[in-house]
C-alpha cells in the first residue's frame, strides 16, 4: 500500500494511505486528481504564471455535497485547504502547496429571476457567464471588468465594476450566500439569517480566489 505525502494546517507533513484517498473519492461525485494524473497540471494552473504551487489533491467538485465532503475530509486529517472559484485571482490563493485544493470550476449554474430581478449562481461562475444570463433579461449588476473573473472572489473582496457609481459595489448588491462552514455545516447567510456571518462575508476578501 502506497501513501500520499500531504501538508497539514500544523505545518508538518503527513502520509495518507492510498486506501484513505480512494475512500474519499467515493464520497464525492467529481474527480479527485493527484500529481501525475490526467488533468492535474491544467487544473492547478491559474493565469498568474508566477504562481507554481502543487496541491497533493485537487477535488473537482460537482455540487454542494462534494464541497461539504471536502471540508469534512480536511477537518478529519487537518489538511491545508485552498478554494478555487473562477481561478482569476492574481494573488494565487486558489492554489496551495501540498494540501487539498477545492476546485469549484465545474459549478457554474446560473438562474435568473426576472420578476424579482435577482440571480442565483454557483461558486465557480465567472462574471462573463453571469452577465450572459442576466443580459438576456435586460438585467445587470455590478461585477468584474474582466469576463474571466469569478463572482465569488470579487464579491467577497468588495467588487469594483462598471456600474458601481450608480449601484454600489458587488457586495452591496449581495442578498444571500449559501456557504459550507469550516465545521461542515451548510448555511444560508443573509441580513435575516446568520447576519454576523453575512456581514463578515461581505468584507472577507482573500478567502476565495476569483
Extract low-pLDDT stretches: none
Question: In percent terms, what proportion of residues is strand?
Answer: 15-25%
Q: What topology, given as strand order, has the largest sheet? A: 3-4-6-5
Reading the helices and strands in chain order gives: EEHEHEHEEEEHHHEEH
**SS field, number of helical segments:** 7
* Secondary-structure arrangement, i.e. CATH architecture of the largest domain: 2-Layer Sandwich
Please provide the count of β strands.
10
CATH topology of the largest domain: Uridine Diphospho-n-acetylenolpyruvylglucosamine Reductase, domain 2
Q: In angstroms, what is the radius of gyration?
A: 18 Å
CATH superfamily of the largest domain: Uridine Diphospho-n-acetylenolpyruvylglucosamine Reductase, domain 2
Short description:
With 210 residues, this protein is α/β, with parallel strands linked by helices. It has helices at residues 18-25, 40-44, 64-77, 127-135, 151-156, 164-167, 195-201; strands at 3-7, 13-17, 32-33, 57-60, 81-84, 100-103, 110-113, 118-121, 176-180, 186-190.
Q: Layout of helices and strands, plus pairs?
A:
Elements: E1 3-7, E2 13-17, H1 18-25, E3 32-33, H2 40-44, E4 57-60, H3 64-77, E5 81-84, E6 100-103, E7 110-113, E8 118-121, H4 127-135, H5 151-156, H6 164-167, E9 176-180, E10 186-190, H7 195-201
Parallel strand pairs: 4-6, 5-6
Antiparallel strand pairs: 1-2, 3-4, 7-8, 9-10
Task: Output the keywords.
25% helix; alpha/beta; Uridine Diphospho-n-acetylenolpyruvylglucosamine Reductase, domain 3; 20% strand; 210 residues
Amino acid at each position: 500500500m502506497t501513501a500520499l505525502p500531504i501538508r497539514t494546517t500544523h505545518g508538518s507533513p503527513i502520509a495518507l494511505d492510498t486506501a484513505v484517498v480512494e475512500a474519499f473519492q467515493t464520497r464525492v461525485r467529481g474527480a479527485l486528481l493527484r500529481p501525475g494524473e490526467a488533468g492535474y497540471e491544467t487544473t492547478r494552473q491559474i493565469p498568474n504564471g508566477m504562481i507554481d504551487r502543487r496541491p497533493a489533491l485537487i477535488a473537482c467538485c460537482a455540487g454542494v455535497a462534494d464541497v461539504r465532503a471536502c471540508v469534512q475530509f480536511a477537518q478529519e486529517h487537518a489538511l491545508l485547504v485552498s478554494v478555487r472559484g473562477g481561478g482569476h485571482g492574481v494573488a494565487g490563493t486558489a492554489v496551495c502547496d501540498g494540501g487539498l485544493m477545492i476546485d469549484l470550476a465545474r459549478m457554474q449554474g446560473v438562474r435568473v429571476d426576472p420578476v424579482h430581478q435577482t440571480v442565483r449562481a454557483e461558486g465557480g461562475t465567472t462574471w462573463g457567464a453571469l452577465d450572459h444570463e442576466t443580459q438576456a433579461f435586460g438585467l445587470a449588476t455590478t461585477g468584474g471588468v474582466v469576463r474571466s473573473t469569478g463572482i465569488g472572489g470579487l464579491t467577497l473582496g468588495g467588487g469594483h465594476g462598471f456600474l458601481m457609481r450608480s449601484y454600489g459595489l458587488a457586495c452591496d448588491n449581495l442578498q444571500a450566500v449559501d456557504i459550507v462552514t469550516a465545521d461542515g455545516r451548510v448555511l444560508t447567510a443573509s441580513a435575516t439569517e446568520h447576519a454576523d456571518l453575512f456581514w463578515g462575508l461581505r468584507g472577507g476578501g482573500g478567502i476565495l480566489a476569483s
